[in-house]
Structure formats: structure tokens, C-alpha cells
Amino acid sequence: MTHARQQLTQVVAHRGASEDAPEHTLAAYRKAIEDGADALECDVRLTADGHLVCVHDRRVNRTSNGRGAVSALELADLAALDFGSRRTREFWRTRDEEPDWVFRPEDREDTSVLTLERLLELVADAGRRVELAIETKHPTRWAGQVEERLLALLKRFGLDAPASAAESPIRVMSFSARSLHRVRAASPTLPTVYLLQFVSPRLRDGRLPAGVRIAGPSIRIVRNHPGYIERLKGAGHQVHVWTVNEPEDVDLCVELGVDAIITNRPRAVLDRLGR
Ligand code: G3P
Ligand code: CA
């Protein structure tokens, strides 16, 4: 009798190795690849002139030395900012000591705004398979343009129409079922992840929006509702959990058979998994 091989829990670097370098910078993603992360997570937004950039917040105020909404700025405006000049709230919440990521002058360019195109190039040049989990932010504001631009960009890299979901190194994540629906309508084999901050009564039985095969619950959901994770798994869905930084949470995810752990500390999680 043959047994299905137990899949390894995938380790996904959330906004890059974002505890070691400023989030969503080339520096953070290079570090995540060096650390051995299986995949990288990034948030994408559209600039005023239609470029997809990797920025989490609606505004650039928290993560750069500039001010204003990404959607009101052009790529050239963003390129003039330094996204390594500010420390993130997440960083200070999780560390007491002074950070040690003081950049050498020659590394400063690694902290300018990161376009999704540049991130796709980095992944293509990684020298090994590195997957990319792309989260569409506030897609309703742009009424489909984020997904349209995203798929056009993926097409340029030959990544928009994988032979099957299992083969795709790319997946698209969103809290918006409508955004995922737009992606699937244009590219049915591209895997999609429905992110969950809480479990609505409609989804309590482990159901996901039509066509979605991967659930993305927060670690808080996993801690408080382990039975829900079992229901998702029982319904045949994959489960990708964010943002898992504590060793006991890593252990809980492994115990529950979670498929991917999304973390700010990829190296620490890989160590915990014995990899
Ligand atoms: O990976 C999913 C997670 O990133 C969702 O939350 O706010 O960090 O984008 P957020
Ligand atoms: Ca995200």
C-alpha cells in the first residue's frame, strides 16, 4: 500500500523577513530568501499612474519618510521616498532592544519603494523555487483595476495561467471574495486564498466562497477555534495562517496540520520546524 507523503508546512515570509529589515523592501525579501523561506507574502496597491507597488497601508506615513495615500502618488513620487527610514509598529511591539538593521550606505537602494514587477524579478532570480503570495488591498476602490493590472503583469512573467493550482508558484490572497472572484474568472487555475479576520456564521461549517480552495485565518482564530480549522481541513481545504511569530503558535499550527505558516520571522519558524 502506498501512503500519501505528508506535505511539509510551508514557511511564508510576511512582508519579507520583516523583523530583520523594514517590511516590503528588497532588503526584507532578500533576507527571507537567504533565510530559506518557501514563499514570500506581499500586499499590493495601485499608484495614481497605475503601477502595482508593495505597500501595506493606504498611506505611506507609517513606513516611509513621506506622507500621503499611495493611490494619490505616482511611482516617481514614491521612488523619492525611503521605506527604510521608519521602524514599524509591529517591530516595536515584538522587540525591546534596539534594532540591528542599520543599513550600509550601499544597501540604501534596497529600501526604496518596491514594485511588484521588481519583486517578481527577484523571485525569478532566486535560484530555487520561491513562491509568492500576493494580497490585493482595497480592491473595491479600483473596481477591478488591481486584479487587471496584476494579471497583466503575471502574464508578462508567464505566471498568469498555470497548468494547475498545485504547480503555480503564485497565489492571490484577499479579504475580499469579490477580488478573488475577479482573479478566478480571468485565470481559473491561479490559486486563491480567502483571508479571514473572524469567522462569520455563514462560513462556520468550513465552507469558503465558491471556487476558493485555501482559507487564510488569523492565528487568533486558530487559537480560539481549533475545531474550525479541523472543519476546513475536513472539507478538503488548505489552511494558511497569519501572522505566526510565537513558538507555541507554530507548534499549534503543526498539530492542526496547517499547510502554510505566514510569519515575520521565517528563520525562527524554520528552526522550530527543524528545517
Ligand atoms: O498574510 C495575510 C495577512 O498579511 C493579512 O493581514 O494586515 O498583514 O495584510 P495584513
Ligand atoms: Ca498582507
UniProtKB/TrEMBL annotation:
<dbReference type="InterPro" id="IPR017946">
    <property type="entry name" value="PLC-like_Pdiesterase_TIM-brl"/>
</dbReference>
<dbReference type="GO" id="GO:0006629">
    <property type="term" value="P:lipid metabolic process"/>
</dbReference>
<feature type="domain" description="GP-PDE">
    <location>
        <begin position="9"/>
        <end position="273"/>
    </location>
</feature>
<dbReference type="GO" id="GO:0008081">
    <property type="term" value="F:phosphoric diester hydrolase activity"/>
</dbReference>
<dbReference type="InterPro" id="IPR030395">
    <property type="entry name" value="GP_PDE_dom"/>
</dbReference>
<protein>
    <submittedName>
        <fullName>Phosphodiesterase</fullName>
    </submittedName>
</protein>
<dbReference type="Pfam" id="PF03009">
    <property type="entry name" value="GDPD"/>
</dbReference>
